[in-house]
Amino acid sequence: MSDDINVAAASRTVFGKGASRRLRRENLVPAIVYGAEGEPQPLQLKHNEVIKHLENEQFYSQLLQLSVDGGESVRCLLRDVQRHPFRQQVLHMDFQRVVAGQALHVTIPVHFENEEICAGVKTEGGMINRTVNEVTVVCLPRDIPESINVDMTNLKIGDTIHLSDLPMPENVTLLDLGEKGDDSDHVVVAVVAPRAVVEEDDDADTDAPAAEGDAETGDDSDEKSD
Q: So what's the pLDDT on residue 187?
């Protein structure tokens, strides 16, 4: 688990769509913090500070120390970010208070390491096909991992890594992985043959019957000439 990230906010006393639009024009982001049996508290954050935080991958999954009006910090997780469809503007944010000893569902990024020296790519000319970039885990706040790391070094063409193959830290379990034998064990990453090779194999299969047909036609011609 990484060090907590400090987030400064101010209490918000204006509400509604019109008030939120005015806040955004003043480069402020409306937000709310809830959970831990406390009352939901409306907040506002400085937009430029929010943008800097969102550039940090850990901001999305790690514990945050949220201080409101300069008061004592409360441990939280970022739960939702609403963005403008085409501007670089954050419209709203949701934070959830964290209770020590209470398990959480947290979405964690998956990092693929050593792709450049992957055997299936470097020596066999294959390609890496990622199907999962993040996973949801269940753990206590103190056990939240920064990321789940997958070593690609020894994977060859045809090799796959499933959810059940991921190296999970101690006391951390995958939410999306069900009982053994069911269909929840999805592929996370695979090393596949280059498309050109696949297309060449398909062409070869297509040409084979045609060649046989030509040979049969030639035989018929000989028989007719006889």
A: 94
CATH 2.170.120.20 fits 104-193, yes or no: yes
104-151 pLDDT tens trace? 999 999 999 999 999 999 999 999 999 999 999 999 999 999 999 999
CATH superfamily ID and name for 5-97: Ribosomal Protein L25; Chain P (2.40.240.10)
Question: How far is residue 204's CA from residue 198's CA, in Å, rounded to a whole number?
Answer: 10
Dihedral over alpha carbons 216, 217, 220, 225 (to 10 degrees): -140
Structural domain boundaries in the chain: 5-97, 104-193, 196-226
Q: What is the pLDDT of residues 9-45, one digit of tens each?
A: 999 988 888 999 999 999 999 999 999 888 999 999 9
For residue 95, give the nearest of 169, 178, 166, 8 by alpha carbon. Answer: 8
DSSP state of 146: S
75-111 core/surface letters (b: 16 or more CB in 10 A; e: else) = bbbbbebeeeeeeeebeebbbbbbeeeeebebebbbe
Q: For tokens 């000439």, what's the residue?
A: 225
Burial class from Cβ neighbours inside 10 Å (0-12, 13-18, 19+) for residue 221 reads: exposed
